[in-house]
Each structure stands twice: as structure tokens, then as C-alpha cells.
Specification:
mainly alpha; elongated; 68% helix
Length: 99
């Protein structure tokens, strides 16, 4: 049982839940909580800030707001499902070999 848990593609699970959360998240103009260390140091620019909001705007069909929040949000929505599928296929391929 523990061996089977170790084989689960946890990266795919985390990315799936993250995308699900962002699909359900309601982005707005209100200030939001951030865990960004650069923001807490008082720096104005962070290359990752706004990416989650960009993805959430994109899931809600707000393309221009998505691009304004972070220009790489569309790229992330393309890459992350591809990575999830790739990890899941590798897991299923390995699972088939073991049984």
C-alpha cells in the first residue's frame, strides 16, 4: 500500500488541484493575501506575481484582464495540463508494467 502511494504522481495531483482552485477563484480588484517574498521585502517587481490571477481571469473568460495581470498566464494554462497528462501517462505506463 505504501509503495503504491509513493508511485502516485504527486506533482500532477498538486497541479490539478491548483488549476481547479484557480478555476473556482473569483479574481477581483480587492487587495489579496500574498506569500510572495519579494512583495514582503517591498520590491515593486516580481516575475511571478499576478500569474494565478491571470489564470483565474482566463478561466472566467476575461482575456484582456488576464493579459494585464500577467502575460504568461495563457502559456501556463497550456503547459500545466500538458504536464499533468504527461505525468499521468507515465504513471499509468509504469503501473501497467508492475501489474
Amino acid at each position: 500500500m505504501i509503495d503504491r502511494l509513493k508511485q502516485i504522481p504527486w506533482e500532477a495531483v498538486v497541479w490539478s488541484f491548483a488549476l481547479l482552485y484557480l478555476a473556482l477563484y473569483q479574481p477581483g480588484n480587492d487587495p489579496h493575501f500574498t506569500v510572495c517574498p519579494l512583495h514582503h521585502l517591498g520590491l515593486e517587481f516580481c516575475p511571478g506575481c499576478g500569474l494565478g490571477r491571470s489564470i483565474a481571469f482566463l478561466f472566467h473568460g476575461h482575456l484582456w484582464q488576464s493579459l494585464a495581470a500577467h502575460p504568461l498566464g495563457i502559456f501556463a494554462v497550456i503547459i500545466l495540463p500538458y504536464r499533468i497528462i504527461q505525468l499521468t501517462k507515465n504513471y499509468l505506463h509504469q503501473y501497467g508494467k508492475n501489474y
